[in-house]
Specification:
Largest sheet: none
Strand content: under 5%
Order of helices and strands: HHHHHHHHHHHH
Helix content: over 70%
Oligomer: single chain
Number of strands: 0
Distance between the termini: 59 Å
Radius of gyration: 20 Å
Shape: globular
Structural class: mainly alpha
């Protein structure tokens, strides 16, 4: 009798927990973007051009750097802000070195939040966001002996979706510290390119900014087209290394 009551309580607790997780998921995925869209439209109006983004950041004056970090964090969590465009504006406004430090700080904080948020929400919620097949495939890649290498390449190559990887990491066997280090190192080249473009535009170096932007677009397109082949190539290369 006691076992039956205990089992019923556990089942009830699991149902309540599942409902709460879905509510949290709905607030993050739908509630926050909806609130910003309907009640903070000026937030989005600041992201139509580098100049507008610079003006949007400048209005916060002494706390503009903190606002930039917060926007970076928000971009990683719910992906409603164009991350590269935001970095263009940061490079324009703050200069390369300060922007680099701020970008890394924002990416680190956002990655930690997403990692633990995925663990809190569980697989069902993340499946709803990205699809069970994609999530399972990404988790399997991360749980393999070459998981950290694959994670690094995903964050390194433009065009390969980072948001799926960020959430899948929290559901995988990867520990936070190595995942965070590898993902941040992988993000750095993309950050550097975006920040240099913004800085060059601010300094009047439109030609060099245009060349870097064109190269970034080409790499992004190639990353989208060949992402599966790239990951397969990594699998084969790491298999050979592990066999040596």
């Amino acid at each position: 009798m006691d076992e039956t009551i205990k089992e019923k309580r556990n089942n009830k607790f699991k149902k309540i927990s599942a409902v709460l997780k879905l509510l949290v998921f709905a607030v993050i995925l739908i509630g926050i973007p909806a609130y910003i869209y309907f009640f903070q439209r000026e937030f989005f109006s600041g992201f139509t051009s580098i100049k507008d983004m610079r003006l949007w950041l400048e209005q916060y004056k002494h706390v503009s750097m903190l606002v930039y970090i917060g926007a970076q964090v928000l971009q990683i969590i719910i992906c409603i802000i164009p991350g590269q465009a935001l970095q263009f504006a940061s490079g324009y406004l703050f200069g390369f070195v300060p922007s680099m430090l701020l970008s890394i700080a924002g990416a680190a904080i956002g990655s930690v939040i997403v990692y633990y948020m995925a663990r809190l929400l569980g697989k069902d919620a993340v499946h709803m966001l990205f699809g069970e097949k994609k999530v399972t495939e990404m988790i399997d890649n991360m749980n393999s002996p070459k998981g950290l290498i694959i994670t690094f390449v995903i964050f390194l190559i433009p065009g390969i979706p980072k948001d799926l990887c960020s959430y899948a990491a929290g559901l995988s066997d990867l520990k936070l510290k190595p995942y965070l280090i590898v993902s941040l190192i992988g993000r750095i080249p993309g950050m550097v390119g975006s920040l240099i473009i913004g800085h060059q535009v601010g300094a009047g170096g439109y030609l060099s900014a245009g060349i870097i932007a064109a190269a970034a677009v080409v790499l992004c397109v190639l990353g989208v087209i060949f992402r599966k082949k790239i990951i397969d190539l990594i699998h084969r290369a790491t298999d050979r290394l592990l066999e040596m």
